[in-house]
Specification:
The chain is α+β, with helices and mostly antiparallel strands. It has a single domain, classed as 2-Layer Sandwich (HIT family, subunit A). About 35% of the residues lie in helices and about 20% in strands. Helix 2 crosses helix 3. The model has no long low-confidence stretch (mean pLDDT about 90).
């Protein structure tokens, strides 16, 4: 069921990369963190426990596939997985590639930016630009991975 005031019911929530009847995978188009990907449950539900066990497994398999492709395509130092829904109560997962030289590391990407030295800012900008150049290959690899049948 869609809700008239939910942005994830009304819009894709980013650049649509892949979808099936249950989920969609989007590039969040984050300027600071290229590759920030969301897996959004198509129907408006707020919590994982609103899903059947089979639906939970399917959703998590897709989240883990996105993580795997980020690891192999982007080669980050760490992957952050998060499912908050505090501001948008529509079930979705954030999959975020992180590097030790990124602007927030080791804090979450939603934290206040710490003061940065010019060297740290330059390192982060170089990493961001390098990652941005990898986006077409990442998107291609992600689509190929998600086209494979889910485990049953």
């Amino acid at each position: 069921m869609r809700q008239a005031d939910c942005p994830l019911c009304l819009t894709p929530g980013g650049t649509l990369l892949w979808q099936n009847e249950q989920v969609r995978v989007i590039d969040a188009n984050d300027l600071v963190y290229p590759g920030f990907t969301r897996v959004v449950w198509q129907e408006h539900v707020a919590e994982m426990t609103d899903l059947s066990l089979e639906q939970q497994r399917a959703l998590m398999e897709i989240v883990l596939r996105v993580e795997r492709v980020q690891r192999t395509s982007l080669r980050p130092d760490k992957i952050n997985l998060a499912a908050f829904g505090n501001q948008v109560p529509h079930l979705h997962w954030h999959i975020i590639a992180r590097w030790a030289d990124d602007a927030h590391f080791p804090q979450p990407v939603w934290a206040t930016l710490p003061p940065a030295t010019p060297q740290a800012g330059a390192a982060h900008e170089a990493r961001r630009a390098q990652t941005q150049r990898s986006m077409p290959d990442y998107h291609r690899a992600l689509r190929a991975e998600l086209e494979r049948p889910l485990q049953r």
